Prior knowledge:
By secondary structure, the chain is α/β, with parallel strands linked by helices. 49% of the residues are buried. Helices cover 28% and strands 24% of the residues. The chain is globular and about 75 Å long. Helix 6 (138-155) crosses helix 7 (176-193). The chain has 2 domains: 40-361, TIM Barrel (Alpha-Beta Barrel), CATH 3.20.20; 366-472, Sandwich (Immunoglobulin-like).
Amino acid sequence: MVYKVLLTGLIAAACSANAPTPLPAPGWKEVGQLKTHSALEIKSSSWSIGGETLDRDYTDYQSYKTYLGPLGAKRIRLQGGWSKCEKVKGQYDFAWLDAVIPDAAARGVAPWVQLSYGNPLYPGGGEAKLAGHIPTSPEALAAWDNWVRAIVTRYKNQVPEWEIWNEPDLNPAHTGAMVGQFYIRTARIVKSVQPNARLIALGMASVGAVGFVRDFYEELKRENALDLVDVQTYHGYAYNPDESYLGIENLRKLVWGYNPKVVFMQGENGAPSTPKAVTIGALRDQDWSELTQAKWDLRRMLGDHGRGIATNLFTISDIHYAPGDHMVGVNTKGLLQTNPDKTIKRPKMAYRAAQHVFSLFDEKLELTADAKPTTDVPTVAAFAYRHKASGGSLVTLWSAEARPAEEYPSNPTTLTVTGQFTRPVFVDLLTGKVYDIPKENWKKTGTGYTFTAVPVPDYPVVIAEKAALATIL
């Protein structure tokens, strides 16, 4: 308990040093601060955090693991690393994964593991890097099959979900049909060892590559294997995260035309925290800061959540890509800033913001699609929720017209929503500060409620019935 208190204090101090000025809300009295819950204290949720690239030693799990549980995500995405496991033909070294998978689970964070990348130990084995080719030669494919069987056998009681490959559309030599054949052979091996495993496809880099996805599912259909996909993952980075959803909806319609039971999940998304001269990776050609990163991450998370899409936030730690991979340098999308040796320097503002979301939007809340909020500002996004136990209502709001900015004058907004409010409060998800809403700023109107002069910034804030926040105030 003493250690937890010390770690919590360190996280709060590091984040407050970079915290923005609280939202201007004249006459709105501060009445509390959101508490955060660790993963062990949260029963269940749809949130996942990225733990990628341990397979290539670009991050250090032993350095960031103490921040994993307090973050509050209930799942972590890992990469299995065929090339790291098999450096001598036919011999597997799982010690590095043995030091990660049980440890994450003990912290309340369930691992889901991606089966990737290639292994140049074998001719035609593909490359052990982002955008590398899948294995193609008979010898390499047989070796891949053996490794998949070995890793699933080893962790079948600890890993409930397996994702097959990552961003296959980045390699121009890949076709949807080719990847479909590779997926089927891999999925059938997983199911032969772990029949109850959930299978995740396809980790698409682009949400617009519908031809690739169509060819993939056509191959599965031809092989009577459409039931081998439980979850469809996609990435699709956009400078304004709210502009992603048309493409995502088109992708959902396409996939559901083949199998309406497939669940959609944002498999990897996050923003950098540094200027373009510093970072590498997606979104690198515009300047970012820790503030705009935190705003962007909040919008991606709650834009997904409001549409019933689970999210894997990318990523927990800055990533140090090495020469020989798809890119070289530091990808600063981590919630934790790293030192040059990949150890953790401190949490960023986005870490604290994510804690607020993970602690608040858990299994105790449900979306209320029949209570769609309306506002007098057409560019404001809004979603309504209900607290299952108390019946109290929550609404998320943010200005969605552009990518997050360093400075943004909040829009005074009128909100109308059906629900249940007796003492509504306003929650700033960046700072975690909670404010009473003055009586003159809200009233009951028939079966709904109207809130006036609500300060809506370019990142999500919450109007909530205070009783619905009782466990985290």
